[in-house]
Amino acid sequence: MTPKKKVEFLIIGQGLAGSLLGWRLIQQGHSVLLLDPCLTHTASRTAAGLINPVTGKRLVKTDHVEQYLTAAKELYAELANFFGLTFLHEREQVRLFQSEAELNQWNKRKNQAEYAPFLAERFNAKDKKYLKETSLGGFKQQQCAYLDTVALLDHLRDFFLHQGCFIKAQIDLSELNISSSSVEWHDHTADKIIFCDGYHLQYNPWFSWLPLQPVQGDILTLKTDQPLPNEIVQFGKWLLPLANGQLKLGASWQWQPLDEKPNEKAALDLLDACYPYFPHLRQAQRLEHNVGIRPGTRDKQPFLGQHPEQSNLLVFNGFGSKGSLLIPWHAERFLRYLTHAEPLPTSADINRYTHDYFTR
């Protein structure tokens, strides 16, 4: 009999959540095995990786964003140093007022001290070439960035392969043999299994009771020979300028169907929203039309923790559209929970839904 290959943690999913958690565990000397089918259309690989501390029509600052930004910058700098490649790109961002209500909300926020580090000065139509005279203008946003998620995930996959801890596989959950002390999959055995597989959690027989609210989104990659703005531009949608005349344009929100198929109507809606500001993009070449399903949650907080009855089944999931910002900090908290039994953040701990599990 060939002995089973033994690891401490079996991680399902090599998106941003599974990859960053796997990296942190390995750096702390723990053994892991990551399983992923290596699909093209995933939330992590489709996402533009935008980091924006203040979002929404009401210009709401993400709770604890200061801690999240610090953790994100530190982890992405660590990865940049290891791979010799920059993944996190700090970039100025501007937001264009879409209504008088948004302008009034900005006037309210600019006088609130906790928003001062993130909201900069207002500008008028004459300050931006792409604004019409009738425009309400907009304002600058500070401490914004974008993460090159595809490059980062590709480099991390190569790292995991080199470490001998990655298998390309579409896991069939019925193949898992779960006991009180271990989890077995084929010829591998692990102390614990961690589900980091995004919206697929809704089909998981152990965690489907968690109130996941997945939403599908389309993002276009375009190429133009015309000048582009230097900053990220938010106008209800967003435009992210890249190198060599390329840009990303996003994003749509589709709750049904969740079919991971590019939606041409969604693409046209993105373009129609963009053209009033950048009419020359009518001649832009469409390079890619990508789609992914974001693993959002009912209370907009991630899912971290262990199954109420089976302690070797865990989840690290539900980061929605803010994964680039949220995952580094939560990965550190989850690492300490796994290895030092430190308590999880109450806002993210799935214990907040334990009542739902026992009253199904």
TrEMBL record:
Alphabetical keyword list: Oxidoreductase
Keyword Ribonucleoprotein: no
Gene Ontology cellular component list: cytoplasm
InterPro entries per record: FAD-dep_OxRdtase, FAD/NAD-bd_sf
Residue ranges crossing the lipid bilayer per the database entry: none
GO molecular function: oxidoreductase activity
Keyword Phosphoprotein attached: no
Gene3D superfamilies: D-Amino Acid Oxidase, subunit A, domain 2 (3.30.9.10), FAD/NAD(P)-binding domain (3.50.50.60)
Domain FAD dependent oxidoreductase: 9-332
Top-level taxon of the source organism: Bacteria
Protein name per the record: Glycine/D-amino acid oxidases (Deaminating)
Organism encoding this protein: Cycloclasticus zancles 78-ME
Record lineage: Bacteria, Pseudomonadati, Pseudomonadota, Gammaproteobacteria, Thiotrichales
